[in-house]
Amino acid sequence: MPWSQGRYLTIFQNTKGVTALDKTNTALVLIDVQKESEFGIEGVNTVVNNTEKLIAECRKMGIPIIYTRHINREDKIGLSNEEPLTEEDKPVFYNNGTDAVEIKDQIKPEKDDIIIDKYRWSSFYDTSLDLMLRNMGIKHLIMGGFVTDGCLMTSVFDAYFRDYQVNLVKDICGATNEGAHMASIMIMANWVYDLAIFDTSEMIRKLNGESYANWEATYPDQLQFTPEIMRQMFHGLNR
What we know:
8-stranded mixed beta sheet, 7 helices, 8 strands, globular
């Protein structure tokens, strides 16, 4: 169906398949699942529980696990423009003088996992992430983390710009409010042309070569969402 004719006619392209990801060129990339608590991210416990399940499955299959950590130096060197500061003139968020920068204990890295520290939202900006992925021959990324509308979304777009195929697991993502979370996932769905969207259970099924359900776009800007129907469209993804 030509894009110009079909963009308003199809709401969802849910797919069902039995093809497993090639485990030899796939990595799990977890964005900033840290102890930082000042954001007030919704549903953190559910996200971390789902992430723990997915990590366990990837470990069992030998899929590399990469964690990113957002860092704001306590001495303010390298801070983003207008980064919020406390009354003591220190970063409010991700202060490296506190344990806010550490990965949550429930999913903490193991000895052979890769940790990428970053100083801007995108995990690819001025980091070694792309170098590490290419050195391992990675082509497919399983991604999730915090916050959906900030560091996660910019990292997904930058992964796409570097020709990685991204599998976004939407229930291991979180934002400070439902609207931002839903809108950012649907924006990624509209403009990352080869994005595949999963829930944790369906991604695990795909990893095991079982039948699974997910969502993939058939043309750009496919999800014509409005405030009135956003929630309905979001909950229709990969069902």
